Amino acid sequence: MTKVLFATSEVYPLIKTGGLADVSGSLPLALKGLDHDVRIIMPAYGDLLAALAKLQTTRIMHGSGAIEIHETTLPGADIPVWLVAHAGCFDRPGNPYLGPDGQPWPDNADRFALLCRVAVEVAMNRVGLRWKPDIVHCNDWQTGLIPALLGDEPGHPATVFTIHNLAYQGLFPPETFGQIALPKRFWTCHALEFYGSLSFIKGGLVYADRISTVSPNYAVEIQGEEFGCGLEGLLRQRADRLSGILNGIDEDAWNPAHDPHIPHPFDSNDLSGKAKNKAALQRHFGLEENPGLAVLALVGRLVQQKGIDLVIDLLPKLAEMPLQLVILGSGERRYERVLEKWAALYPDRIALKFGYDEALAHLIEAGADVFLMPSRFEPCGLNQMYSQHYGTVPVVRSVGGLADTVDDASPTNMTLGKATGIVFHEAEPAALFGAIQRALNLYATPDMWLRMQKTGMERDFSWRQSARQYETLYTLARQDCLAQGPSVLALAGSA
Ligand code: ADP
Ligand code: GLC
Question: How far away, in angstroms, is 378 Cα from ligand 2 center?
Answer without folding.
Answer: 7
